[in-house]
Design goal:
Blueprint: H1 4-14, E1 19-21, E2 44-46, H2 51-63, E3 68-71, E4 88-91, E5 98-102, E6 107-111, H3 116-124, E7 128-129, H4 141-147, H5 154-157, E8 164-170, E9 176-180, H6 192-196, E10 205-212, E11 214-215, E12 219-227, H7 230-242, E13 249-254, H8 255-265, H9 273-278, E14 281-289, H10 292-307, H11 320-331, H12 333-339, H13 355-369
Parallel strand pairs: 2-4, 3-4
Antiparallel strand pairs: 1-2, 5-6, 6-10, 7-11, 8-9, 8-10, 12-14, 13-14
Helix pairs in contact: 1-2, 7-13, 8-12
Length: 374
């Protein structure tokens, strides 16, 4: 338990309106989106508004040996923001300012509590692009950095660490450090920026992030491709990469999942009845180009590769609404399987060339133990 003395000190730091105790602590502060993690009520929730307040909180907690759990948007799947040892939940929700968008250097400087949706909108207004999309736009930048979030666009753009140029962070002692800057190359010793990325709040609390941006792509194209069987779909994936075109995303969807997603979202993928009946697996592929002709040319080449690997047809949505409907269907996968009673959901990373073997082995394991794995 946190003593009354500590509570008074925390209220003095952040203001009493930014400290939650007892029944004031909402259920949302007790869990994230992990299906297997137990919800735990923290002793206290504290909401700092700036790095100085974070520093004072951590210095106080360090002196009194009180555990501190940083929290962003609570969208993670591993229970990382749950106060497993009680103590303080340090919510960065108030630190949500976009401090700078530097068009000359293609850089954004943001506080840790800025959400992805807020960042996307702000940088697009300047003709710029932040390509990391882990699947939930309410996730915060600080949380993305702490977990090294990836997502469906990692095929082309990589993960969060590939777009972080520098950080401001607070150590457990309360010391504030700054790493990196608006540059790519540095030869000044250990790369502390990369050390802190993915550290899940165990080394420091991230308070500010310098992000690399890209020019906003002018055109995008999307393909939804049905395959007769699972093996044809997974074999087509390395063939697409080998063709020389790197899609923004390649998403694998089985018929079981497609039906689940359509029922959950109330939207239908625009494919023929024949393709729907004959297909057991699908690929959703997104590509981006500098112009319309480039995007269409790449889409046609990918379509040809898939047809040569057993695709039954190639569907290219021709309106923005059709594209957004497809993206929404795919983006609701977690919530659809959760609603259907999934027991757990984990991220798995394998080399691209091992995807076919991996998928087949997963199904063999499921059959061996009579467990449904999707």
């Amino acid at each position: 338990m946190v003593s009354e003395e500590i509570v008074k000190a925390l209220k003095k730091i952040v203001g009493k309106e930014n400290v939650l105790l007892g029944e004031e602590i909402g259920e949302e502060y007790m869990h994230d989106e992990a299906l297997t993690a137990k919800a735990i009520k923290p002793d206290i929730v504290v909401k700092p508004g700036n790095v100085e307040e974070v520093s004072k909180i951590l210095r106080l907690a360090n002196n009194y040996r009180i555990s501190v759990t940083p929290r962003g948007g609570g969208t993670g799947l591993s229970g990382g923001c749950i106060a497993a040892s009680g103590g303080i939940i340090l919510s960065l929700e108030r630190m949500n300012k976009i401090l700078e968008i530097d068009e000359k250097n293609h850089v954004a400087v943001v506080e840790a509590g800025v959400t992805l949706s807020e960042l996307y909108k702000a940088v697009e207004n300047h003709g710029l692009y932040y390509p990391i999309y882990p699947g939930e736009a309410t996730a915060t930048i600080g949380g993305n950095v702490a977990t090294n979030a990836g997502g469906m666009k990692a095929v082309k753009y990589g993960v969060t660490r590939h777009f972080v140029l520098g950080l401001e962070a607070v150590l457990p002692t309360g010391e504030v450090i700054s790493t990196g800057g608006k540059f790519v190359k540095s030869s000044t010793g250990y790369d502390l920026t990369q050390l802190l990325i993915g550290s899940e709040g165990t080394l420091a609390v991230i308070t500010k992030v310098i992000l690399k941006l890209l020019p906003l792509p002018k055109f995008s194209s999307m393909l939804f491709i049905p395959f007769k069987n699972l093996n044809d779909a997974i074999q087509a994936t390395p063939a697409i990469i080998k063709s020389g075109i790197i899609p923004v995303a390649i998403e694998f969807i089985e018929k079981f999942d497609l039906i689940l997603l359509e029922n959950y979202t109330g939207k239908k993928v625009p494919i023929s009845r024949e393709a729907r009946e004959k297909s057991e697996a699908f690929l959703l592929i997104i590509i981006e180009g500098r112009n319309f002709e480039e995007a269409i040319k790449d889409a046609e080449l990918i379509g040809d590769v898939c047809l040569n690997h057993g695709a039954l047809d190639v569907y290219i949505p021709d309106t923005e609404k059709a594209k957004q409907d497809l993206l929404e269907i795919r983006s609701k996968h977690f919530y659809a399987v959760k609603d259907a009673g999934a027991k757990d959901m984990v991220d798995v990373v394998v080399p691209r060339g091992e995807i076919p073997r991996f998928v087949n082995q997963v199904y063999k394991i499921g059959e061996k133990y009579n467990v449904t794995i999707r």
